[in-house]
Amino acid sequence: MRFSSLAAAFLALILLSGCAAKADPDPICPKTGFIGKTDTMTYLAPGSTKDVLATATMKGFSGDCTFKDKDKNDLEVSLTLPFIAQKGKAGGTLKEKEFPYFIGILSPDEQILQRQAFTTKISFDDTGAGSSSEEHVIKIPLKTRADADKYKVIIGFALTRDQMKYNEEK
């Protein structure tokens, strides 16, 4: 599967960060980060280019990786993704909002090996704020354990073209 030109451009902007290892022997974790400006998602009022219904942000990530089976080269990457959200002025009586996001695995030659879609539902309190946290375990079958740091885990909100344009203009 090939990246679209838009996804390829975002890939160049990946913010890379390792994750801490816990297994014996200590694996080297895949590089993990967000694609471009996909760590924020804004919903605008229908027909508007500026009236915000709600905005959510992924506030980083944490995790580790391990080889669960000493006889296999299957790497398990555990991720925790914290989200915060704020209802906008156009949000009115909005009580909750769903925010779709994805986690993907790229091969050493940056081909998409896996892409999983998820949704977090965030409820807003009386001040219009909300938060959630999601935990995931991603399994990556490796040819050899030494290849672990050659893979990449990419994270981001599943933005529409308009949402991406909004993020780029901010």
Question: How are the secondary structure elements laid out?
Answer:
Layout: H1 5-11, E1 20-21, E2 31-34, E3 40-44, E4 52-58, E5 62-67, E6 74-87, E7 96-106, E8 112-123, E9 129-141, E10 152-157, H2 161-169
Parallel strand pairs: 1-5, 2-10
Antiparallel strand pairs: 3-4, 4-6, 5-6, 6-9, 7-8, 7-10
Concise account of the structure shown:
The chain has 170 residues and is mostly beta strands. It has helices at residues 5-11, 161-169; strands spanning 20-21, 31-34, 40-44, 52-58, 62-67, 74-87, 96-106, 112-123, 129-141, 152-157.
Structure description:
With 170 residues, this protein is mainly β. It has helices at 5-11, 161-169, and strands at 20-21, 31-34, 40-44, 52-58, 62-67, 74-87, 96-106, 112-123, 129-141, 152-157. Strand 7 (96-106) and strand 8 form a beta hairpin. Residues 1-25 have low confidence and may be disordered. It is built from two helices and ten strands, in the order αββββββββββα. The strands form two sheets. Strands 1, 3, 4, 5, 6 and 9 form a six-stranded mixed β-sheet that branches. Strands 2-10-7-8 form a four-stranded mixed β-sheet, with no helix packed on it. The longest helix has 9 residues, at 161-169. It has a single domain (5-160), classed as Immunoglobulin-like (Sandwich).
Strand percentage lies at over 45%
Top CATH class: Mainly Beta
**Through-space gap between termini:** 31 Å
**Poorly predicted ranges:** 1-25
Number of domains: 1
Note the main sheet. Answer: 6 strands, mixed
User: Mind telling me the C-alpha Rg?
Assistant: 18 Å
> Which percent range fits the helix content?
under 10%
